[in-house]
Amino acid sequence: MRNVAIVGIGHTGFGNLSSMDLVDVLGFASCSALEDAGILDKRHELVEQVFVANMGAGRVNSASAIASALISRIGLEPAMAETVENGPASGASAVKLGMMAIKSGMVDCVLVTGGELMRAVSGWEGTDFVATMLHTEAEYAYGLTLPSFAAMFTRLYMQRYGLTERELAMVAVKDHENGAKNPYAHVKVPCTLEAIHDSENANVVNNVVADPLRLYGMCPVSDGAASLLLCATDSPKMKYFKKQPIRISGIGSATDTHCVHMRKDPLVLDAVRLAAERAYAMAGLGPRDISFAELHDAFVILELAISEEVGFFERGKSREAVVRGDTRIDGKLPINTSGGLKAKGHPLGATGVSQIFELVKQLRGEAEEGRRVANPRHGMAVNFGGFGNNVVATICSKE
Amino acid sequence: MILDEMEKKLRPPELELKPYPPKVITLADGQKMVVRECQREEIGVLLETVFPLMQVESDFYDIVAARMFAELLGWYRYRVANEFVMVGAIDGEIAGIVNSRLVDGKVGMSLHTMTIRRGLRIGAQLFAAKMEHHLEILGQDEVWIVAESPNGFKRWMIEYELEDRSSQFPAIRHELGGVPTFVLTRKLYDAVRDQKVTGTRPVDAALLKTAEVLRAPDKYPQIPGFRRE
């Protein structure tokens, strides 16, 4: 089976880009990836397929068929192009499809770009739009949203494992510390434990959004795009790329019941565990081999729960790792070195691609001073769709 | 003195306003922001702070800055009745400004909220302090409010669940351009007070001292590369 490497990466700043056009934003990230690879002027000869990850352009931006639009915007005709929609896991799903297209032998070089402009609508409309991924009759119809699901999940986790609000706040502080050093992050402002938890002003500064989750327990609503250029390592095209290739050594995905109430235990995220196991199996690696990870912390509780499901920590023990500082940038296993969704932001379709962008940046040694992992070999990203009903895990390795 | 007599006629009658007791808020990044009322003598630094933002089109900063500039000048030159101005200051540097005025003893007219430093909910804290002044310190019944930007609409109209009185136009009409008027009543304020209003009093003397002399910001996140001439 052919190996696949990432040979170019691109990213826009995450934040409020609502005055821009979605396809322009996708185009900026795409051209950045092509430029990073050193093939902007040879793109017509080299790129054969484009996958665009996006969840809501049809609804939020009144734009459809955006892969075709992107091709024209950046002058890539006649490359093949498809849009991939898999909820918040669209980004990593698009990378998986790109990898499959290369491994099948159909193509050698694929551009994967994910992007979303969510701030075109109000936060309430955005929350409602994201909630459309839930079960229409059993969940959405009753007013359930992703923040409310995460709040219930958090409350149950607290009851079972003794997690405290202070420990949750420590995850946010760590993520914001990393995000403040990431030029692409939506929120570049660090926060302190005193301010968001201990101070007498904390109840207002870090207000409750969905009890027990507070403002600093959830990601911002963001716009942005990220892009990766993939190529078969045995392809003659490899000679054109100027940057160190980073291999996608493993990728796996899995699904779980659409309705959360149908799971035997709502705290067990089977799809996360299975996706990770499949990625580990493909890579021939295990959790102990991973140097750092980007985990889908749309809500800070998910960073903890996912880190346990992928085998980094025993169930219920990740909070102890946070308190010890193990997941900080200088800890044993840095998690969300980019700031995570919590601080970097979460433009749905872009997120999975952006997580892998961060793996590449760290493995190349290009991360900014102060948030650079020391000598990483293997990085893992987990892109979480629905409320854990469709998850993609990816492992990237430095040769 | 003919001019003095003329000037007296030009000046609006003023209500005597109780002073706003300063408070300090620990922001999310750990910085301490002193919230205090401004004096007319501080007009220079306030105008200096607002002026550069008149060129910033995004988030309606241009309209808010231009109108606030005029309102501050009007306050300084006694052309606006019963106006008060408050600032949030971090180590003496102005992080945000709010202004408002009293129509009479019962009704407040919220004018503008200007956030300089972004990402710390400074505007939200200052707006809450302004409402605290109207309803708790000055003892008014309600405050009339409009929003010029979508951000303002989300922060005030939606989050405070303000009462929409636009159907009562023109009987109820905010002074800013006749746009739809929303109202914060005492009942609505009491319902959200614990989630919106914070701050510690009294402010430690050393901390209060840092906010005694205000400085205009050196940098504006809204104006990349800004340099004060």
User: Please, how many domains of chain B?
Assistant: 1
Order the strands across the largest sheet of chain B as they lie in space: 1-2-3-4-5-6-8-7
The largest sheet of chain A has its strands arranged as 3-2-4-7-1-8-11-10-9
CATH superfamily grouping of the domain at 4-122 and 221-240 in chain A: Thiolase/Chalcone synthase
Mean pLDDT of chain B: 95
The rough form of chain B would be described as globular
Could you explain how this protein is built, in words?
The complex is a heterodimer of chains A (399) and B (229). With 399 residues, chain A is α/β, with parallel strands linked by helices. In chain A, 37% of the residues lie in helices and 18% in strands. Chain A has a domain at 4-122 and 221-240: Peroxisomal Thiolase, Chain A, domain 1 (3-Layer(aba) Sandwich), CATH 3.40.47.10. Chain A has a nine-stranded mixed β-sheet, sandwiched between helices. In chain A, strand 5 and strand 6 form a beta hairpin. The longest helix of chain A is centred in the last third of the chain and has 17 residues, at 348-364. Chain A is globular, with a radius of gyration of 20 Å. Chain B is an alpha+beta fold. Chain B has one domain (16-210): Aminopeptidase (3-Layer(aba) Sandwich), CATH 3.40.630. Chain B contains seven helices and eight strands; from the N terminus they run H-E-E-H-H-E-E-E-H-E-H-E-E-H-H. Chain B has helices at residues 2-10, 43-50, 61-76, 122-137, 150-158, 186-196, 205-210, and strands spanning 23-26, 32-37, 83-90, 93-102, 107-115, 142-145, 163-164, 182-185. Chain B is globular and about 45 Å long. The model of chain B has no long low-confidence stretch (mean pLDDT 95).
What labels describe this entry?
heterodimer; A: 399 residues; nine-stranded mixed beta sheet; two-stranded antiparallel sheet; 18% strand; B: 229 residues; alpha+beta; Aminopeptidase; 21% strand; globular
